[in-house]
Structure formats: C-alpha cells, structure tokens
Amino acid sequence: MVLSVSLLVSCIPSILLYIYLRNLRIEDPGFRSNCRRLLVKGIFCSVGVALLALTINIVWSISGFAKDSPLLKEAFKAFVMAAFVEELVKYLTANKVIRKNCETVSRLDCMAFCAIVGIGFQVIETVVYLLESNVIQILVRGFTMGHPAYGMLMGRIIGKSLYGGKRSCSFKAVAVPLVLHGMYDFSLAEEFQAINDNLVFVPFILIFIELFILIRSLVLIKRERKGETYTKPLSGI
Questions:
Q1: pLDDT (tens digit, 9 = 90+) per residue, 35-90?
Q2: Where does the pLDDT of residue 111 fall: very low under 50, low under 70, confident under 90, or very high at 90 and above?
C-alpha cells in the first residue's frame, strides 16, 4: 500500500511537466496531438527496450563477456543494456515524429517531444521497478525525473543538429544522455562503490546534474518560447 501511494506521488511531477509542455503551443492542435501521441509512444517504447535488451543479453551471455569481472559486468549492464538501449529507443521514437513534422516542428518542440517520450517511459519503468524498490528510491526517481531531463537534453541537441539542415550533432543526441545515464546506473552498483568509500557520493552528484539539466532546460524554454531562434520551424531536412 505504501509503495503504491509513493508511486502515485512520484508520478505527479511528470504529469505536471507533461501538462506544461503540452500547453506550450496551446493554440496549435497539431502540436498537442503530437504530444499525446508521443506520450503513448513513450509508454510503449518500453516494449522495444525490453526486446532489444533481451537480444543483447542473450548475445552477451553466449559470448561470456566479463564473466570473470563483476565490475566490468556491471559496467556493461549500466552503459549498454540500460543506458544505450533506452536512449537509442527513445531517440528513434521521438526523432521519427520530429522528422515527419519538420515543416512545423521547432527546436523548442524537439525538447518538448523528447522529454514527453521520456515521461512516458519513466512512468512504465517506475511501475516495473515497484516490486524491487523502496519508497525513497521511488520518490527520488519521480522527483528528479531523469528520463525527461535526458530527453530535454537530447531534444536540444536534435534541434541544433537539424536546424538549417545540419546533421553533425545527431550522434551527440544519443551519446551525451547515454553517458550521463550510464554513469548514474553504474554508480549505484555495489561493485562500483566498493572501489572506494568516497564513491558513495557519486550518485548524489549525478542526481544534482540531472536536476540541473531539467531546471536549466525549463528556464531555456520559458525564456525562448517567444523567441524566433527556438520557435522557428526546422528547415533543410
């Protein structure tokens, strides 16, 4: 019962963030429709994540990679089976909609769309982790909003790469969130923290970074929502 209540409470920040992002262009029914569609896609992209992770896990098990190294094994799980798979699927999900609507989508829209995919995925991930987490972990995940924060960072890079037909930053749209995401997951592993007692503070530092990215992105959205640079439709794609 306590876990269920904490789950509901943890979803409140994500719901409020979704409402805020959906209302950025309240006069545009197409934008709001894409927001709803991407929220659903974010929820269901968990299926793609599970299938891809399962495939990698099978290949990894057969190969015997890192079998005798617990630390390397945890690093592979964190950076490849979790961060790489999740960020790649979220990128493909959001980027498909962005490119399909490039005549109307702006750089600000890219941030909103990627964040909304992250919101949908985080809700499902929190439900999945419900049985193996405690109240504190569930609430921390809910209020730090790691996936939406990574999504905003990803969307900002996508918008920059596509604005004016540029493609040089496309790789970074996956790589930068992947590294931050992987570092956070890896820092929670017992094998990582066993290296040195001081490393117990690393997860807190990475949580602070997540919050900084989220707050900084929201400040940027509020400041630039009326500016031409971030609201002008993408072109040259």
A1: 999 999 999 998 999 999 999 989 988 888 777 788 999 999 999 999 999 999 99
A2: very high
Eight-state DSSP code of residue 233 = B
Integer Cα distance of 156 and 136 in angstroms: 30
Instruction: Please enumerate, as own/partner, the contacts of 47-54 that have beta carbons within 8 Å and a separation of 24 or more.
Output: 48/89, 48/93, 49/85, 49/86, 49/89, 49/121, 52/85, 52/88, 52/89, 53/81, 53/82, 53/85
How many C-beta atoms lie closer than 10 Å to residue 220's C-beta? 16
Tokens for 112, please give them.
Answer: 């909103």
Q: How far is CA 101 from CA 72, 74, 88, 109, 234, in A?
A: 41, 39, 20, 10, 9
Angle 85-100/107-128 helices, nearest 10 degrees? 140
CB atoms within 10 A of CB 129: 13
Residue 56: partners with Cβ closer than 8 Å, 6 or more residues away: 80, 81, 85
Report DSSP state, residue 77.
I
Pair 188, 85: CB distance under 8 Å: no
Asked whether 176 and 91 are in contact (CB, 8 A), the reply is no
Q: Per residue in 38-56, is it b (16+ CB within 10 Å) or e — as a string? A: bbebbbebbebbeebbeeb
